[in-house]
């Protein structure tokens, strides 16, 4: 199974709505396995189709909670319902508990308020439906990856002053245009 290059912000596929998956075949199952391998090697806790240049509505996730329970799976054609996030001011954001990073903006982390609870409905790589109710970090992972399917990166949701800081980091790294990617296991984009 090959490791796939991860696209960096500015790549058009990252900034447009992904298309529904219509074929549940060996190609899809191979893509899912390649995405797992890529995510694990990166390392990351989630990876969406657009991040590997595939404009399809799917993401993989893998995260172990504080009780040592592994949450790992693939969500194809997901629908996500969220509880309303608690409004915040910049002073209320907890940089330890609410900071996110993204494999498509490698090396950067900024605090972002997300909904505490979500309900994910999707199908797996075989077309079998499932539902997951999640809270805390798993809910954050689902929201982050779902955003990718609609053409949003977490940086697009940042408020002042973090939006300015991430824009500066993107310019400093010469990102923001098409054709940039990194390969887990070979490249070290975080410096």
Automatic annotation (TrEMBL):
Q: Does the keyword Metal-binding apply?
A: yes
- Give the note describing cofactor binding and stoichiometry: Binds 1 Fe(2+) ion.
Q: What does this protein do?
A: Removes the formyl group from the N-terminal Met of newly synthesized proteins. Requires at least a dipeptide for an efficient rate of reaction. N-terminal L-methionine is a prerequisite for activity but the enzyme has broad specificity at other positions.
The protein's required cofactor(s) are namely:
Fe(2+)
Instruction: Name the InterPro entries for this protein.
Output: Peptide_deformylase, Peptide_deformylase_sf
Q: Which reaction does it catalyse?
A: N-terminal N-formyl-L-methionyl-[peptide] + H2O = N-terminal L-methionyl-[peptide] + formate
Recorded source organism is: Curtobacterium caseinilyticum
| Protein name per UniProt | Peptide deformylase
Alphabetized GO MF terms:
peptide deformylase activity
Where on this chain does Fe cation bind? 102, 144, 148
Q: What is its EC number?
A: 3.5.1.88
Alphabetically sorted, this entry's keywords are: Hydrolase, Iron, Metal-binding, Protein biosynthesis
Q: Which NCBIfam families match?
A: pept_deformyl, PRK00150.1-3
Q: Which SUPFAM superfamilies does the UniProt record give?
A: Peptide deformylase
Q: Where is the active site?
A: 145
The family assignment reads: Belongs to the polypeptide deformylase family.
């Amino acid at each position: 199974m090959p490791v796939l290059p991860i696209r960096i912000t500015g790549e058009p596929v990252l900034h447009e709505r992904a298309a529904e998956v219509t074929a549940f075949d060996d190609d899809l199952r191979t893509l899912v396995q390649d995405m797992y391998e890529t995510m694990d090697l990166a390392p990351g806790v989630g990876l969406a189709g657009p991040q590997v240049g595939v404009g399809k509505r799917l993401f993989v996730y893998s995260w172990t909670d504080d009780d040592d329970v592994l949450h790992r799976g693939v969500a194809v054609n997901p629908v996500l319902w969220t509880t309303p996030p608690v409004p915040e001011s910049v002073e209320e954001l907890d940089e330890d508990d609410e900071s996110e990073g993204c494999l498509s903006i490698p090396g950067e982390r900024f605090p972002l308020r997300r909904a505490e609870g979500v309900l994910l409905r999707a199908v797996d790589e075989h077309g079998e439906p499932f539902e997951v109710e999640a809270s805390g970090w798993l809910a954050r992972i689902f929201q982050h990856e779902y955003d990718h399917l609609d053409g949003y990166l977490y940086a697009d949701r940042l408020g002042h002053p973090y939006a300015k800081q991430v824009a500066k980091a993107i310019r400093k790294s010469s990102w923001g245009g098409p054709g940039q990617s990194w390969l887990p296991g070979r490249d070290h984009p975080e410096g």
